[in-house]
Design brief:
The complex is a heterodimer of chains A (277) and B (322). Chain A has twelve helices and one strand; from the N terminus they run E-H-H-H-H-H-H-H-H-H-H-H-H. Chain A is mostly helical and 277 residues long. Chain A has one domain. In chain A, helix 1 packs parallel to helix 7 and helix 4 runs antiparallel to helix 11. The longest helix of chain A has 36 residues. Chain A is elongated and about 80 Å long. Chain B has two domains: 221 residues, 3-Layer(aba) Sandwich (Rossmann fold); 69 residues, MTH889-like domain (Alpha-Beta Plaits, 2-Layer Sandwich), CATH 3.30.70.1340. Chain B contains eleven helices and 15 strands. In chain B, the strands form three sheets. In chain B, strands 6-8-9-3-10-11 form a six-stranded mixed β-sheet, with helices on both faces. Chain B has a four-stranded antiparallel β-sheet with strand order 2-1-4-5. Chain B has a four-stranded antiparallel β-sheet with strand order 13-14-12-15. In chain B, a hairpin with a 2-residue loop joins strand 13 and strand 14. Chain B is elongated and about 80 Å long. Classes of the chains: A mainly alpha (277), B alpha/beta (322).
């Protein structure tokens, strides 16, 4: 043996998070050293920016000749286009990004468990919570940058071009913040479901069901909207357009969503800790 | 952590159930330091379950176990710091090359310096004969190459204990040969605890053996002891001539427990079971030769093939359980 263990520096991490930095590097590498990053970097700005630009640039010329009440109320065709563009980006975008987060994270735990990689990794000096948290942290970063950040940046540029000057930054940033929390909720939900289910159908069914059908359920049982993220897309649209939003439409569901994210993370950690491989 | 002993692995009454299925039942095991411990058993005997329990991947239902004196349930990270594990089907990070996989694995143990980590990985690639394929994608590796890379990954931290689950079972004869040679090379540095159902491999490289059947350890000990069979130490003598009363005189010796004689072509074969191997080695042949009526044409200690012993023990334990 040439290099003794004494010649190497031992990893210095607390046992409860042992292996986190190495696993985080691996997870980041899976995002940023593979085609995955540029595919998502092109896809989401193209989908969300594309839809919004149709509303921002094509819609005003379509409605310019018509005296529709909404167009008049919005302040003219351009203002109407901006209003619909914002609506499409934040309302439809929140659902689209939720679906994106679910699809991208459905295999976070499942794939490695099924291929035996999890068993192999957990036979190393790795704390189970480090394994889960590394996946969560790397995916959260990638999703925030690629799914939320880049499309938002492109949307802001389009919005400013259409408005003929910089769009109001603060309400837009607040809207992006809410969109980020909303998207992260679906990431954490999917991660947690991955600790309970061993098949994709159940994970996708529940998570997508929540993203698509949540607001419908909330329509029947109103108080559910105060404690879930289901109304956040609609409320964000109003907030970005500078309108005041009642606490039960924004503050309460936003706080509840953050709390759900924490609860789901803790549940995922506890469940994974007890899982046998 | 309890006081260190001469045993790397110690389990007492270790049991594991999956619902109604009792996968491990009161397993008592002691794996001596610096041994190559072969863990035998038919398919479904519980070998992998035991290994996973030792690694903290599965929680025991009852009983306890220690590795290096650390509790296998509560101090698992400290244990895994000092071991290397090769699963039955080695797994890798598929988008990394062999070298990248090694560096990634090494980083669970060492934070630097980078040059030394790189040197360690090169050394491991050399050890398993994969230096020329270090930077190739793993996708193109053969089964044998993957197995050898798996051993390199398990060995990258110079573990005090290597746990190998069926390291050679899926390989062709050449691949098996290569893996056994690597194990023999590693024996001076580490304790190797490995499971297999290939009895030839065990007989070739192991010094200590345990046999697991239906979740229970049915035999355990040094391989010489296991190979001597359940009748204990037996000496075989091929005798010509007509010994008068020799059988009775042997039976009168305190260390002779049983004598069995068979005749063939004018030669009688004597199987003498003894309780004191040293006394038998010193005196048995001399005692027989003292009878001037006989000629001894062959004298040797009877050796069983492991397969013979294994089948006998496993069948016996199956019979006892019914």
């Amino acid at each position: 043996m040439t290099t003794t263990n004494q010649a190497l520096q031992r990893v210095n991490e607390p046992n409860c998070l042992r292996g986190f930095s190495n696993l985080l590097r691996k997870e980041n590498r899976a995002w940023w050293n593979t085609p995955r990053w540029w595919i998502n970097a092109l896809l989401w700005p193209a989908i969300l920016g594309g839809l919004a630009s149709i509303m921002l640039f094509a819609l005003p010329s379509l409605v310019a000749t018509e005296q529709v009440d909404e167009v008049v109320a919005a302040g003219g065709p351009v203002a109407y286009g901006i209003q619909i563009g914002i609506s499409v980006f934040f309302r439809m975008g929140s659902v689209a990004l939720a679906l994106g987060a679910v699809v991208l994270s459905q295999d976070l735990l499942l794939e490695e468990q099924q291929s035996g990689v999890t068993e192999w990794l957990l036979a190393k000096p790795v704390a189970r919570r480090a394994y889960v948290l590394a996946k969560l942290a790397a995916s959260a970063l990638a999703i925030l940058v690629l799914l939320v950040g880049l499309p938002s940046l492109s949307m802001y540029l389009l919005l400013s071009i259409r408005a003929g000057g910089p769009y109001a930054v603060l309400p837009f940033l607040k809207g992006i913040g809410v969109l980020a929390v909303h998207t992260l909720f679906y990431l954490v939900l999917t991660l947690m479901l991955g600790t309970f289910f061993k098949n994709r159908t159940a994970i996708l069914g529940i998570a997508i069901g929540s993203a698509l059908g949540g607001s419908m359920i909330g329509g029947f049982i109103k108080p559910l909207l105060w404690i879930t993220p289901w109304i956040l897309g609609n409320s964000t649209e109003l907030m970005v357009m500078g309108q005041s939003v009642a606490p039960e439409m924004m503050a309460y569901p936003l706080a509840a969503t953050v709390i759900w994210c924490l609860i789901f993370t803790l549940v995922a950690l506890a469940k994974f800790e007890r899982t046998e491989f | 952590m309890s006081q260190p002993t001469n045993f790397v692995i110690e389990t007492q009454g270790l049991s594991k159930s999956f619902g109604e299925l009792q996968a491990l039942h009161n397993v008592d095991l002691k794996v001596p330091r610096n041994s190559i411990f072969g863990f035998l058993g038919p398919n479904g005997a519980g070998k992998t379950t035991l290994m996973k329990t030792l690694l903290g991947l599965i929680r025991p239902t009852s009983g306890k176990g220690t590795i290096f004196g650390y509790d296998i349930v509560n101090e698992s990270v400290a244990i895994r710091e000092r071991i290397g594990y090769l699963p039955q089907q080695p797994r890798f990070i598929e988008y990394m090359t062999a070298r990248q996989n090694l560096e990634f694995t090494a980083r669970f143990f060492f934070s630097g310096p980078h040059r030394q980590i790189r040197e360690r990985c090169d050394e491991m690639l050399e050890l398993v004969g994969l230096s020329d394929k270090a930077d190739r994608p793993i996708k193109g590796f053969s089964g044998g190459e993957k197995q050898r890379l798996g051993i390199a990954l398990a060995q990258v931290n110079y573990p005090d204990l290597l746990i190998l689950d069926e390291p050679a079972s899926a390989l062709d004869p050449l691949g098996r040969q290569a893996v056994l040679e690597i194990m023999e090379r590693l024996r001076e540095h580490t304790t190797i605890f490995y499971s297999t159902h290939i009895l030839d491999d065990v007989q070739r490289v192991s010094d200590t053996v345990a046999i697991l059947n239906r979740g229970q350890v049915v035999a355990s000990g040094p391989i010489e002891q296991i190979l001597s069979g359940k009748d204990g130490v037996v000496y075989t003598l091929a005798v010509k001539g007509k010994p008068a009363g020799l059988e009775q005189r042997l039976a009168d010796l305190s260390w002779v427990t049983h004598t069995q004689i068979s005749q063939r072509n004018g030669t009688s074969t004597w199987q003498v079971s003894v309780s004191d191997q040293a006394a038998a080695e010193r005196q048995l042949l001399r005692y027989v030769l003292s009878d001037t009526m006989v000629t001894v044409t062959e004298f040797r200690r009877k050796k069983y093939e492991l397969e013979e012993v294994f089948m006998e023990i496993v069948k016996g334990s199956n019979h006892d359980n019914h």
